[in-house]
């Protein structure tokens, strides 16, 4: 239709008629005189509306899916929480199994040495107590723990008790520079004193400057008077280096401790000393050396090219 004066008047007239019909329809309610026309329009345009609705439904479905995804997200989060809790439980079981194994080995050591021990767990390390190499255990005076008692684990000497509370105690580790313990060499019986050097091997001064010591030799605690602070026979470590004698009165050794001080968990406090010195019985069995395979090479002489069987011409 061309945009003329007549077309604009016709458009205004149609708009006026439309408003008039809407007014009549609203006032008429269910008895509206245009109800029949509306039903006819619905019959004609219904299929078109269905098509348009079908085109719009995916958008509506997507909105609905987003709304429902909130519920699914909550369920997924719940499943993830349950999975995390299960993993934590399994991890706890693994840790408990590790502790049971440590405790079992600790009981074996105490049995071989005839030590009466009180088991405890490490609950803090020395950073909270200053610059000393110490740990805190969950056993104290109420458990029979006293100052200057020997502390060991399934590998050997851990340290000695320095401070005791009702439910906890502080243990000075063998690696602390202020720690000193009397030692005895396995079999050789050479005596000395081991001192801590932090994260470095223990320093041992042997009283015999001419002692014949070699790398791989092992040491145990010599013991103290009245078994405090140290009971005898607790494994200390393995000689990792022997300094030259130099003609001095003492001889210096570097000793790698049996105990891994960065992995302390279950320990035992010796509350009752053995009736007699266990000597070397608490030391672990030495690993058997692996035999070095030998290869025998047999040289077979080669046959001579000019043999005796050559024919004469």
Automatic annotation (TrEMBL):
It comes from the Bacteria. Residues 274-313 are annotated as: Disordered. The keyword Electron transport does not apply. The keyword Amino-acid biosynthesis does not apply. Keywords: Cell shape. Residues 130-270 form the Rod shape-determining protein MreC beta-barrel core domain. InterPro entries: Cell/Rod_1 (IPR042177), Cell/Rod_MreC_2 (IPR042175), MreC (IPR007221), MreC_beta-barrel_core (IPR055342). Coiled coil: none annotated. Residues 274-283 have a biased composition (Basic and acidic residues). Belongs to the MreC family. Involved in formation and maintenance of cell shape. This is Cell shape-determining protein MreC. It comes from Streptomyces heliomycini. The lineage of its organism: Bacteria, Bacillati, Actinomycetota, Actinomycetes, Kitasatosporales. The gene is mreC.
């Amino acid at each position: 239709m061309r945009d003329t004066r007549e077309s604009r008047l016709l458009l205004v007239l149609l708009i006026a008629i439309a408003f008039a019909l809407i007014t009549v329809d609203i006032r008429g309610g269910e008895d509206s005189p245009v109800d029949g026309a509306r039903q006819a329009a619905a019959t004609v345009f219904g299929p078109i509306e269905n098509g348009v609705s079908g085109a719009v439904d995916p958008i509506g479905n997507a909105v609905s899916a987003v709304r429902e995804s909130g519920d699914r997200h909550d369920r997924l989060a719940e499943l993830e929480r349950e999975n995390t809790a299960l993993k934590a439980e399994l991890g706890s079981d693994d840790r408990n199994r590790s502790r049971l194994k440590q405790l079992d080995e600790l009981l074996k050591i105490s049995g071989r040495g005839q030590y009466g021990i009180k088991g405890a767990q490490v609950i803090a390390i020395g950073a909270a107590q200053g610059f000393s190499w110490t740990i805190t255990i969950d056993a104290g005076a109420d458990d029979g723990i006293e100052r200057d008692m020997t502390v060991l684990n399934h590998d050997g000497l851990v340290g000695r008790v320095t401070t005791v509370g009702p439910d906890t105690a502080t243990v000075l580790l063998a690696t602390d520079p202020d720690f000193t313990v009397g030692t005895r060499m396995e079999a050789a019986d050479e005596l000395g004193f081991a001192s801590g050097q932090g994260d470095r091997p223990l320093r041992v001064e042997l009283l015999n400057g001419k002692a014949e010591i070699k790398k791989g030799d092992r040491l145990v605690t010599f013991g103290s008077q009245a078994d405090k602070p140290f009971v005898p026979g607790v494994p200390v470590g393995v000689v990792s280096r022997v300094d030259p004698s130099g003609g001095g009165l003492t001889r210096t050794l570097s000793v790698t401790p049996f105990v891994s001080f960065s992995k302390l968990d279950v320990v035992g406090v010796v509350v009752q000393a053995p009736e007699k010195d266990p000597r070397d019985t608490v030391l672990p069995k030495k690993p058997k050396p692996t035999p070095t395979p030998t290869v025998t090479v047999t040289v077979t002489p080669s046959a001579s090219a000019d043999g005796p069987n050559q024919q004469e011409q």
